[in-house]
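Posting here for the record, re: adenine.
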Amino acid sequence: MTRKKHTDGPSGAGEPESPREVAPEPKGSEKAWQAALRPRTFDEYIGQRELIDNLKVSVRAAKQNGWPLDHFLFAGPPGLGKTTLAHVIANELGVNLHVSSGPAIDHKGMLASLLTSLGEGDALFIDEIHRLAPVVEENLYPAMEDFRFDLFIGDGPHAKAVTMQLPRFTLLGATTRMGLLSAPLLDRFGFHWQLRYYELPDMCAIVKRSAQLIGVTIDKDGATEIARRARGTPRIANRLLRRVRDFAAVERDGAIDGDIAGSALDRLAVDHAGLDTLDRAYLSVICERFDGGPVGIEAVAASLSEERGTLEEVVEPFLLQVGFIARTPRGRVATAAGYQHMGLAAPTKAPSGGTGSAQGRLF
Ligand code: ADE
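Prediction output follows.
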């Protein structure tokens, strides 16, 4: 195995880094923030216990026996930690992680250059893997199965097939749309896992950990308020934490309690169930314009001037999870809980939403 370099990884012996004390204030982008708050070891990782326990076993087996880790696929809505898991796995294995995405690998040559840059045992993370072009996907199969890549040199009748041997590597795939993955691609992963929204205690622990890393004082009520409104999604929790921190710094002494968290989040238009302006606009369109549904996703997208994909990948999974909408063969419907959340009277036909409670299974 090629061992990961010291700059941003574990020691040459492949041991994970020790937990950090305080992360330096990251400059600029949202991505830099997310990276700074990202756990780097299985022990730092909060939540998704079953998955983490399974991964620990596979990583340990690979390390003990010098096997390359099998190809793993993670599915789930954005922000639940698919990229983070890839970093943690590579760190725990002590190998380099190469990061790319389905849309970025837009031709076969790009895939060839990615694969040939891998070192023995390295991990390759492909985000949004459901968006790979078919020709790229087909060329990924022999790479995943036999660590080989078939190239054609020259054109037409004089073209010559050359097979390149690749280093043994681990493909870590991530998708927000498991249903869009082809069966042949799915078959080539040794393991798939659907990440779930995080439960409230895990979300609270993540908020407290992040607050400590960015050097902000937060009490239990403050952490709970942010955690409750972050729709079971660590990335959202970390984003809200930074916004609330701004309010606490400007309007208070910098410390976050339940009061300032609640009032900041109200002003940021994040309601007590974690719904933002787009979520509420979506619900309102179904309840008010389409009389509770059933309504097709295209009609909802057109009414909101939003991309269908954004609604399907970002908005709907959480609203389904908390039982505010339901999917039927004829389209989306608002549930009684959805109406109640919007402060509207539910028509008698509105389904209960399965979970029966406005907060669904999550909180
Ligand atoms: N930050 C974002 N996701 C996290 C997780 N699952 N555990 C700890 N910190 C996190």
